[in-house]
Amino acid sequence: MIVEYSPIGVVRSPFSEKEGTPIQPSRADGARGTVEVFPEFAEGLSDLDGFSHIILLCHLHRSSGWRLKVVPFLDTEPRGIFATRAPCRPNPIGLSVVNLLAVDGNVLSIENVDLLDGTPVLDIKPFVGEFDARTEIRTGWLEAARLRRDRADDRFSG
Ligand SMILES: C[S@@+](CC[C@H](N)C(=O)[O-])C[C@H]1O[C@@H](n2cnc3c(N)ncnc32)[C@H](O)[C@@H]1O
After folding, report:
1. SS3 track for 123-156
2. Along the 158 residues of the chain, how does pLDDT read in single tens digits?
3. Dihedral through CA 11, CA 128, CA 135, CA 115, nearest 10?
4. What is the C-alpha separation between 25 and 32, in angstroms, rounded?
5. Pairing relation of β-strands 69-70 and 79-80?
6. Sign of the dihedral through C-alpha 146, 152, 154, 157
7. Which domains, ranges and CATH numbers included, belong to the chain?
């Protein structure tokens, strides 16, 4: 089965190269951008302005191929791709929780963006603590990972 989606909008960000882009919103140091929602979907943004954070589901359009084992940005050991947030996935879907600063017509102003300029947006959902936050969690290999990298290097660029 082939699943096809069409983007509902596009991310505008200060980042044009994978290398040097923040590896996650939590490490983006306030980097700002926008989501330009295509006009035919703008009505769907009503009531979103009351939320402080949104979930962006994106097509990581500049992923180059996929691998089932990768050395993540924060580790030195190969890990299964589905135990990581690496971009070179069989279906290169990105999930970024970003701060929503403002809604102006069809344009969302966002903060803590870890996506390249031009990234196609597949969906937008409000982040809801009750639904999405957890207090008792285990984080597997990340608990022992010692690297403190904030920006991507070129490991997934080839
Ligand atoms: C580790 S991924 C995390 C993305 C998302 N927060 C997630 O967890 O799914 C973030 C990195 O992917 C790369 N990246 C960002 N936008 C991309 C795009 N549109 N296509 C390919 N790679 C992208 C950049 O190198 C960035 O540092």
Report:
1. EEEECCHHHHCCCCCCCHHHHCCCCCCCECCCCC
2. 999 999 999 999 999 999 999 999 999 999 999 999 999 999 999 999 999 999 999 999 999 999 999 999 999 999 999 999 999 999 999 999 999 999 999 999 999 999 999 999 999 999 999 999 999 999 999 998 878 899 999 999 87
3. 0
4. 10
5. antiparallel
6. positive
7. 9-143 (2.40.30.70)
Could you tell me the two tokens for 109? 């102003």
Please work out whether the CB of residue 94 comes within 6 Å of at least one atom of ligand 1. Answer: yes
Q: Is this model's pTM higher than 0.90 or not?
A: yes
23 Cβ contact partners less than 8 Å away, ≥ 6 residues apart: 73, 74, 85, 114, 149, 150, 151, 152
Determine the length of the chain: 158
- Of 116, 123, 147, 150, the one to substitute when testing ligand 1's pocket (max ligand atoms within 8 A of C-beta) is 116
Residue appearing with tokens 């290169």:
92
